[in-house]
């Protein structure tokens, strides 16, 4: 990133950078020295007239450096102090801890540390901007071991809120007052890495730059650490690096490469493409040129194979004409066949390379068209921004003509991330609610039609947007910030949810159709219908026992016994259901031969 400043930087800018890591009475901190070195290098590249980087300072050294820096700020327009290390808050006041501090009791804080007010005093002479950046909100080990001389004395977590009394003064904390910051797992803390990414951007207002720093740190720490800025600036933009005005139309460095590429494309020779690659060995057009070379190489290979095939055919004809031996003829025929196969393969390879070259050429033209469109859009945006700046300047001039009493406004504390260079047109509550619901419906978070009332369905849809977009908007009301965030999303954010038996197809739910023998299962996928198996049933023992008892109770059917019964009338078979019994003395009247009788049921 080129940050050196030319004649446009007539203002004098000075900076003091301090990083304390090697504490004698506390564990060594890993990042402050690295962070101070990184931030100091950024300020030097940004063109500051004086950047003094000091590491691992004792109390006396810190006081001396602040005293000397205060002398340099008397002739400066912009003064910046960056401090990385331990800090402590005592009874609402903030103190920077040197490396030789022991802090055995709370009373030692007043003797062994440097008040933040001392740093404010050092930057106060600067004429335009006074900026103090404190990467000192770490979890302080001194506060845990320090003895309290007064039980009611408050020692806070992190640093306390600061309200600068001087105008055009800003104090940036790595974490909001009352919370601690993280050193992270990398060489530099998330806060320092975000500072060097955004602060040196030419023309970027400091309030906007610290807003971007806040967003980066929140994402890097899983929304656990939120940087904060105290103080206020005026209405004009205050960048750390002034953006130099363009002196005329800026030539696109790709134009010359494109012209040379098109010239080589017209020549379409190996020498032309090799000359182009010698001048431009890397980049998009170099890759296209290599493709054209491959195409030419394939054509040369094909031509050589074709020439070889012709020579083989001529040799075959010569051998046949001279009635050469059969072995020589077969060799010649095999060579001719192989040459023909090589020619066919070369022809195919040529076609492949030609198709690749044509595809690459189409891609080049599409990329150039996209670049031209992006340039047109950028120019249109810059024109709109210039018109907005002119309109704001006119409004500012009009406000300057009003009495001073009409322009006085109460100063309020605000987060840097909430600042924006433009203003949003005012909307009524009903129009705002309807606009937010329309955008929620567009990104797939709302299924019902938008309406002028902020209903419970709209609140649920904004909750879904917060979940999938990683935002934290208040869902109880429609806000302009939420509307801007929704408009910034190019497509669907919330996933499409379909009922059972349907699946998502683009932005619609379509019914799931299974082939014969399959049905939709519990997991909303097609599964095979299971075959019905015969079910074994147990015999009802109660019915079986009842049938057996009935059969036993019923009289047996008369059956022939096969016996012969004889009496005075003669002999005959015993009838069905009858039997022969021996007669007793009581049956004297029916006594028969053999004293037997026939008894029937």
Characterization of the model:
The chain is of the alpha/beta class. It contains 16 helices and 17 strands. Strands 2-1-3-7-8-9 form a six-stranded mixed sheet, sandwiched between helices. α1 packs parallel to α6. It is flat, with a radius of gyration of 49 Å. The N terminus is likely disordered.
Quick take:
By secondary structure, this protein is α/β, with parallel strands linked by helices. The chain has 16 helices and 17 strands.
Number of helices: 16
Q: Order of strands across the widest beta sheet?
A: 2-1-3-7-8-9
Separation of the first and last Cα atoms: 127 Å
Number of strands: 17
Structural class: alpha/beta
Approximately how much helix is present in the residues? Answer: 40-55%
Rounded to the nearest angstrom, the radius of gyration is 49 Å
Structural descriptors:
13% strand; alpha/beta; 43% helix; 601 residues; disordered N terminus; flat; 17 strands; three-stranded antiparallel beta sheet
What's the helix and strand layout?
Elements: E1 13-19, H1 32-45, E2 50-55, H2 59-73, E3 78-84, E4 87-90, E5 93-96, H3 108-112, E6 114-115, H4 116-123, E7 129-135, H5 142-145, E8 169-173, H6 190-198, H7 206-220, E9 228-232, H8 253-267, H9 270-279, H10 284-321, H11 326-400, H12 404-407, H13 429-442, H14 456-469, H15 480-487, E10 502-505, E11 508-511, E12 518-520, E13 526-528, H16 541-553, E14 564-567, E15 570-573, E16 578-582, E17 596-600
């Amino acid at each position: 990133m080129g940050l050196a400043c030319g004649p446009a930087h007539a203002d004098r800018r000075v900076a003091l950078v301090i990083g304390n890591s090697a504490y004698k009475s506390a564990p060594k901190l890993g990042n402050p020295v690295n962070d101070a070195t990184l931030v100091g290098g950024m300020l030097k590249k940004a063109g500051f007239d004086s950047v003094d980087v000091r590491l691992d300072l004792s109390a006396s050294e810190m006081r001396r450096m602040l005293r000397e820096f205060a002398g340099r700020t008397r002739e400066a327009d912009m003064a910046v102090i960056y401090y990385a290390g331990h800090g402590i808050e005592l009874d609402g006041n903030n103190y920077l801890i040197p490396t030789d501090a022991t802090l055995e009791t709370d009373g030692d804080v007043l003797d062994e540390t440097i008040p933040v007010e001392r740093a404010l005093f050092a930057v106060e002479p600067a004429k335009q901007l006074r900026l103090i950046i404190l990467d000192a909100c770490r979890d302080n080990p001194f506060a845990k071991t320090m003895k309290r001389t007064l039980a009611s004395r408050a020692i806070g977590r992190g640093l306390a809120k600061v309200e600068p009394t001087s105008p055009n003064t800003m104090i940036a904390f790595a974490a909001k007052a009352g919370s601690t910051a993280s050193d992270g797992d990398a060489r530099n803390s998330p806060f320092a890495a975000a500072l060097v990414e955004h602060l040196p951007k030419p023309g970027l207002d400091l309030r906007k730059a610290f807003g971007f720093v806040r967003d980066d740190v929140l994402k890097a720490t899983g929304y656990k650490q939120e940087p904060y800025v105290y103080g206020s600036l005026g209405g004009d933009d205050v960048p750390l690096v002034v953006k130099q005005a363009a002196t005329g139309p800026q030539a696109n460095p790709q134009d010359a490469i494109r012209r040379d590429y098109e010239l080589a494309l017209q020549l379409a020779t190996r020498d032309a493409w090799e000359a182009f690659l010698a001048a431009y060995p890397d980049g998009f057009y170099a890759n296209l040129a290599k493709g054209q070379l491959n195409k030419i190489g394939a054509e040369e290979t094909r031509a050589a194979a074709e020439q070889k095939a012709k020579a083989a055919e001529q040799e075959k004809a010569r051998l046949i004409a001279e009635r050469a031996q059969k072995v020589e003829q077969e060799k010649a025929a095999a060579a001719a066949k192989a040459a023909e196969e090589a020619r066919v393969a070369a022809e195919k390879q040529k076609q492949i390379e030609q198709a690749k070259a044509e595809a690459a050429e189409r891609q080049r033209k599409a990329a150039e068209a996209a670049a031209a469109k992006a340039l047109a859009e950028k120019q249109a945006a810059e024109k709109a921004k210039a018109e907005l700046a002119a309109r704001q300047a006119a409004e500012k001039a009009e406000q300057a003509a009003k009495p001073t009493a009409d322009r006085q406004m109460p100063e309020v504390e605000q987060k840097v991330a909430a600042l924006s260079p433009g203003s949003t047109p005012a909307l009524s509550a009903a129009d705002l609610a309807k606009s937010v619901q329309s955008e929620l419906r567009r990104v797939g978070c709302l299924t019902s039609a938008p309406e002028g009332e902020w209903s419970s369905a709209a609140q649920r849809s904004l909750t879904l947007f917060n979940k999938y977009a990683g935002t934290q908007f208040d869902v109880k009301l429609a806000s302009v910030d939420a509307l801007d965030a929704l408009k910034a999303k190019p497509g669907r954010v919330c996933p499409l949810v379909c009922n059972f038996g349907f699946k998502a197809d683009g932005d619609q739910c379509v019914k799931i159709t299974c082939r014969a023998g399959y049905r939709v299962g519990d997991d909303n996928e097609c599964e095979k219908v299971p075959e019905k198996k015969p079910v074994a049933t147990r015999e009802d023992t109660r019915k079986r026992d009842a049938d057996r008892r009935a059969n036993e109770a019923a009289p047996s059917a008369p059956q022939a016994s096969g016996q012969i019964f004889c009496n005075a009338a003669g002999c005959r078979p015993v009838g069905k259901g009858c039997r022969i019994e021996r007669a007793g003395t009581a049956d004297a009247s029916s006594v028969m031969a053999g004293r037997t009788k026939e008894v029937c049921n």
